[in-house]
Amino acid sequence: MEASLLRQCPLLLPQNRAKTVYEGFISVQGRDFHLRIELPEDLQMKNARLLCSWQLKTILNGYHQIVQQRMQHSPDLMSFLMELKMVLFIRARMSWGRRRQRERQERENSEQALRCQPGALCGARTQEPRDHDLSRNQELDA
Asked: What distance in Å separates the CA atoms of residue 93 and residue 119, rounded to the nearest whole number?
């Protein structure tokens, strides 16, 4: 298990000889998140304690019960870390996808604003000119 743990989470290292405390980083989609896992003497995940950075806590906001459930049902640390990475991957894609979509929309809006000239017929910055009733104007002029 030690070798596979090191392969999956190379930045998460044991902090004591009994290997009941691990601290370091978990990587998801190119981002590293700090965490600390404190295992009981029997190494059972259901009694473990997970401490994490505010960034990781923010991403997992609303997923506390899912993380707790995965801790309760994982037979060992390696299994839990794989489950946690899966939750983080899904959550990160959702939140980062919304941010990318918002950034793309802002970029498109600013590009369109650059193409618009003051007074020009552009629906993004000015109102479209209203249709005038030419027959009425002709009557007034007559």
From this structure: 42
